[in-house]
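TL;DR need structure tokens for one chain.
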Amino acid sequence: MKVTVAGTGYVGLANAVLLAQHNEVVALDIVEEKVELINNKQSPIADNEIEDFFATKELNIRATTNAEEAFKGAEYVVISTPTDYDPEEHFFDTSSVETVIGQVLEINPEATIVIKSTVPVGFTEQMRKEFDADNIMFSPEFLREGQALFDNLHPSRIIIGEQSERAQRFATLLAEGAVKKDIPMLFTDSTEAEATKLFANTYLAMRVSFFNELDTYSELNGLDTKQIVEGIGHDPRIGDHYNNPSFGYGGYCLPKDTRQMLANFEGVPNNIINAIVASNDTRKDHIAKMIADRNPETVGIYRLTMKTDSDNFRQSAIQDVIERLKAADINVVVYEPVLEEDEFDGLRVVKDFAEFKQVSDVIVANRLNPDLEDVREKVYTRDLFSRD
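>> reply
TL;DR here they are.
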């Protein structure tokens, strides 16, 4: 079966590699460099499992920038293009998804279109009406940056926003490529599937915010956060997971999904959803103040990435902390091995790690690393468990 995947970010590439184990997969992207890497069996994103699969597995996958070549003859077209949140419109920018839908319907109107991009609640139904097409369905993804393929190989559940034979066939394709067996499968209506995705990520953001506020309370009152977190984590209703304090939630999904959820709540009574978004800003204010209170001449930022083993800077919480430090006229330098440039957002990038440690009065690390052990007295972090 030919399956086309439009967009080769974390979601798209993880799905493409998963499906390429048993199907002919064509990956479509507008970036020529990414296409060349994929065709040379190299991953354009940092993901250990994807890199390993390219190196060791027999995958039937090729990449192209040609939409005609990609869509023609495909039975399923998976759309995984970016849907960044537009702060002015208070909604996801779904233009890339709409463009792909239009192209598919023009080139191959018989294909079943599966939207994997995160979209507003009600979007799929709206697209069916606007394009007068009944071959569009939504299937949410629940992936972690840097572990996207792993999460597809071991999915917590597969949700398809349609109750039909073609929905069941697509779910079977995903399950066929997975390592995990007996995967829970849910077939819902499209709007309920969209809401499931946004509510799930908003709950995770709420959990991050809860433990961050717990940590803020402990830090200001001289308490040991770790003891408290471990104590409450033994309650099985709470659990000992997703509880490591940070500088705030960030990355591809949680910031935009929580804001989209808040926009979807317009006219609906709520307190919690608004508080989650506000709490994340409050946490960054607190982190910046605690750093500034040390009266440093130079603050060194250790890594801009959101998570360990990730190459993603987008919407990382540390960047918002940096903006607050700059506003306080504090000199900031950056150590980020992924960067080739000498500057980042007007800040000096220090390439030599020894020099970075030497020039920094305070080293700010969202996540600790053994490389910082010799300057531990300089390090400001809220990382308790050395894990994401």
